[in-house]
Amino acid sequence: MARKKKGLLLVVSGPAGVGKGTVNAALMAKHPEIRMSVSATTRLPRPGEIDGVHYFFKTKEEFDRMIAEDAFLEYMHVFGMNYYGTPKSFVEEEREKGNHVILEIDVQGAKKVKAACPDAVLVFIAPPSLSILKARLVGRGTETQESIDVRTATALDELKALPDYDYMVINDVVEEAVSEMEAILSAELLRTGRNTELITKLTGGETI
Amino acid sequence: MARKKKGLLLVVSGPAGVGKGTVNAALMAKHPEIRMSVSATTRLPRPGEIDGVHYFFKTKEEFDRMIAEDAFLEYMHVFGMNYYGTPKSFVEEEREKGNHVILEIDVQGAKKVKAACPDAVLVFIAPPSLSILKARLVGRGTETQESIDVRTATALDELKALPDYDYMVINDVVEEAVSEMEAILSAELLRTGRNTELITKLTGGETI
C-alpha cells in the first residue's frame, strides 16, 4: 500500500579508508530513491564539474548571504580558505519528495547537522579494527607513511565520537554493510515519531 | 565475523485480530534465535500444558514471593482472579545467550516493561484501518456482534497508545510485516548504545 513518507537524512561518517564511499555507492545503486547531498562551495569549478551536481558553486558574497539567511545545515570556513556548506534547501526538497539524502561528513559536521536537524539519522561506518584500517590505507599504495600515520591517528579520534552516533556499521564485508544500512533505513521509517500523521489518520478511522 | 551480542527484548502489542500471533510465528519460523517469553501464572495447567513451555505454573505463595523479590518485569492481578506475570529470569537468560525474546503484551503491560527494562524495543502492530480490523474479526466467524463491537472500541483505545511505542508495523501483507520486524531487529542491534563494549575494544586497538 502506498504510504508516501518524508525521506530520511542519513548522516554518514567514518575514518578515511573505511570504505564509506564504496558502501554508499553500492547502497545508492540498489536504491534510486537515495540521493547524495550536494555541498555548496566558494572554490572554483574544476574541469568537468557541473554546478548543482558536484557542488553548488557560489561566490563569497552569495555564501555569506546564505549564512545570514540560515540556509545551511552546517558550513565550515577556515580563515583564508574556501567555504564549504550543506544547503538546507536541497536536503529538504528531496526529503519532501520522499527521497532519502545521504550526507557524508566528518564528526564535527555531523554534530552540527544533528543540532540543526534533530531527526537526522547518524551512522558511523567503522573498520573491524584500527590495524585493518591501517592495512587498507597501506594497500591503496597511494599514501605516504606520514599520511598513513596521520590518518590512523585521526581515525582513533573519530572513533571516540562513536557514542554521539545513532548507529554503528562495521565495514568488514561491503554487502553486509549495505544490508545493515538498508535495515537502518527501513527501521527508521517505522519509528512512531516519524508517523504521527498516519497515527492521527488511523485513530480517526481512516485507512492508511 | 562473530560478534556475540546481547539479544533484544521485543515487546509486541496490537489489537485483537490484527495478526500479532501470525506475524510473530512467521518471524520465529525464520529465526531460531528468537524465543517467545513464557509467563508465570497461578492458574492451574490445562490438559497438555507443560510447565516452563506454555507457562511457569506457580502457587499463590510462590508468585507472592517472586513479587517481593522483584522477579517480574511486569505482573497483573485482578482481585479474586489468577495472577499473570513476566519473570525477568527467563528473558535475561535468553538475552544473555544472544537470543531475542518476544513478549506479546497489552499496552498497559508494555508501559510497565519499558519502565522496568528501558532497553526493551516496543513494537505496535497496527491494522491498515479500524474498518479492516473489524472486517477481519467478522471474518473469523467466531465472534458475536457484541464481542466485535467491544474489540473494535478497545482497538481504538489501544491505537491511542501508539506514540508510546518505538516502532509501528502495519500488518497489511504478513510477509511485509515480517520483513519490517526483521529490519527493526537488525537496526536495533546496530545502535551505538547497544555496542559500548565493541566501541571500547575498537578505540583500544582491538579487532572486533
Give structural notes.
- Two copies of one chain form a homodimer.
- Chain A has a five-stranded parallel β-sheet, with helices on both faces. The first copy, chain A, has a four-stranded mixed β-sheet with strand order 4-3-6-5.
- Helix content of chain A is 43%, strand content 18%.
- In chain A, α1 packs across α7 and α5 packs antiparallel against α6 (145-159).
- With 208 residues, the first copy, chain A, is α/β, with parallel strands linked by helices.
- In chain A, a hairpin with a 5-residue loop joins β5 and β6.
- Chain A has helices at 20-30, 60-68, 88-96, 107-116, 130-140, 145-159, 174-189, 196-203; strands spanning 9-13, 34-36, 40-41, 56-57, 72-77, 83-87, 100-104, 121-126, 167-170.
- Chain A has a domain at 9-37 and 100-203: P-loop containing nucleotide triphosphate hydrolases (Rossmann fold, 3-Layer(aba) Sandwich), CATH 3.40.50.
- The termini of chain A are close together.
- The model of chain A has no long low-confidence stretch (mean pLDDT 94).
- Chain A contains eight helices and nine strands.
- The A-B interface holds A 1, 3, 124, 126, 128-132, 156, 159-160, 162-163, 165-170, 172, 179-180, 182-184, 186-188, 190-193, 195-196, 198-199, 202-203, 205-208 and B 1, 3, 124, 126, 128-132, 156, 159-160, 162-163, 165-170, 172, 179-180, 182-184, 186-188, 190-193, 195-196, 198-199, 202-203, 205-208.
